[in-house]
Automatic annotation (TrEMBL):
It holds the Pfam family Acyl-CoA_dh_N. Keywords: Oxidoreductase. Residues 22-92 form the Acyl-CoA dehydrogenase/oxidase N-terminal domain. SUPFAM superfamilies: Acyl-CoA dehydrogenase C-terminal domain-like, Acyl-CoA dehydrogenase NM domain-like. This is Acyl-CoA dehydrogenase family protein. It comes from the Bacteria. Gene3D superfamilies: Acyl-CoA dehydrogenase/oxidase, N-terminal domain (1.10.540.10), Butyryl-CoA Dehydrogenase, subunit A, domain 2 (2.40.110.10), Butyryl-CoA Dehydrogenase, subunit A, domain 3 (1.20.140.10). InterPro entries: Acyl-CoA_DH_C, Acyl-CoA_Oxase/DH_mid-dom_sf, AcylCo_DH-like_C, AcylCoA_DH/ox_N, AcylCoA_DH/ox_N_sf, AcylCoA_DH/oxidase_NM_dom_sf. PANTHER family: ACYL-COA DEHYDROGENASE, ISOVALERYL-COA DEHYDROGENASE, MITOCHONDRIAL-RELATED.
């Protein structure tokens, strides 16, 4: 198969009609703080959850770049739906990353995805700024190679919908002198967890990213993927998580920004000034704001394509992937907030009402600052890649 080029037109699964239908539900889900049940059913029926599963394993075989482009389109219709589905796509992306590099340890995930399983991401923990490098959750060995997990996970997107949950925890029991971060998967029907009904947020409401309390959720030996020493790691599994998560997350916020700009252009063409009698699209100040937003947005698409394209082409960047993908995520989420802000400034006071789509995008885009890598950790990562590590 030829190496994909960032200049190739990306293949699409989501039809315009499907996106229109999904967009029509977004305001209702947000208003009612309800799960995107009908969206998920439609996305499943369209084969979207199998987008990145290789064709020979029953999927559509989209590349990471193509999936990122599709996620941006979905986010333009319904940001919270895209964010929740994103966490499933991340796991498929990790499995694809390993599969393409000759590691079949997650091929079962690709096969289960092809058969309809939905994967969730149960990694985030309150106060854990180590993210993948450590955990507050206990991973208790069962003596047979499996683990029972005890701890609290926050921001567990797609809480009502996942059937398989990726989790991590610290095993400091097997060898206290050599603790290990254990990465594994538990099943919904296996029990040992409680999902709290606590998702009442400013934005991204339909994602229903509820707190998950693990109280003995068990992963058998064949679903334990890695036991990695705490701290920085170039294990392909860690690289796969980091690259897939950051790239696909960035695509969601890029889609929000793209939609906000389109709404602003539509609005300023429709509204007119009582002072001049002309459409606001003819106002020099408004044109400057629209131009500023468009210039900022134009710089993000090539970076998304390039970084995702390097993963697809299996470029061996090693630790360089941490810099490029963390930088992409921070640049996109920060710029997306600026673009939405400019769009609102151009569009008038009606955007302050809950019925306004732009007002909803303003709330949704704010969530970007809370996902890893945050601004501080990304700057630290980039500084280390340029300056080297801090002195002891």
């Amino acid at each position: 198969m030829p190496t994909p080029s960032p200049f190739d037109a990306p293949r699409q699964i989501l039809t315009d009609d499907l996106l229109t239908t999904i967009r029509s539900r977004a305001a209702g889900y947000d208003r009612e703080n309800s799960f995107f049940t009908d969206d998920l059913a439609d996305l499943k029926a369209a084969g979207y959850l199998q987008a990145m599963v290789p064709q020979h394993l029953g999927g559509a075989g989209l590349t990471l770049r193509e999936a990122a482009r599709e996620q941006a389109r979905l986010a333009g219709a319904a940001p919270a739906t895209a964010l929740a589905v994103n966490m499933h796509h991340v796991w498929v992306g990790v499995a694809r990353f390993l599969h393409e590099r000759g590691d079949d340890s997650l091929d079962w995930l690709l096969e289960e995805t092809a058969h309809g399983e939905v994967f969730g991401f149960g990694y985030s923990e309150a106060g854990n700024d180590l993210v993948l490098l450590g955990s507050r959750t206990e991973a208790r060995p069962d003596g047979e190679g499996g683990y029972a997990f005890h701890g609290t996970k926050i921001f567990t997107s797609n809480s009502p919908g996942w059937t398989r949950l990726g989790v991590m925890g610290l095993d400091d029991v097997t060898d206290p002198d050599d603790p290990r971060v254990v990465h594994a998967f538990v099943t919904r029907d296996g029990g040992g967890f409680e999902i709290k009904d606590d998702w009442d947020t400013l934005g991204m409401r339909a994602s229903q990213s509820c707190t998950t309390v693990l109280d003995g959720a068990h992963a058998p030996a064949d679903r334990v993927l890695r036991r990695i020493a705490p701290g920085p790691s170039l294990d392909p599994y860690v690289l796969g998580i980091f690259t897939s998560f950051e790239i696909l997350l960035a695509s969601v916020y890029l889609g929000i920004a793209d939609r906000a700009l389109a709404l602003a252009v539509e609005t300023v063409g429709r509204r007119s000034s009582m002072k001049t009698g002309k459409a606001y699209s003819q106002d020099p100040d408004i044109r400057w704001r629209i131009g500023t937003a468009a210039l900022a947005l134009d710089g993000l698409w090539p970076q998304l394509d390039m970084v995702a394209g390097e993963v697809d082409a299996q470029v061996d960047k090693g630790a360089g992937f941490f810099r490029s993908t963390a930088g992409l995520k921070v640049r996109v989420t920060e710029t997306a907030r600026q673009v939405v802000d400019e769009a609102i400034r151009c569009s008038g006071g009606s955007t302050y009402f809950n019925r306004s789509e732009l007002g909803r995008l303003y709330r949704d885009v704010l969530a970007g600052i809370f996902h890893p890598s945050d601004d501080e950790s990304a700057h630290s990562t980039v500084a280390q890649s340029v300056l080297g590590p801090l002195d002891d």
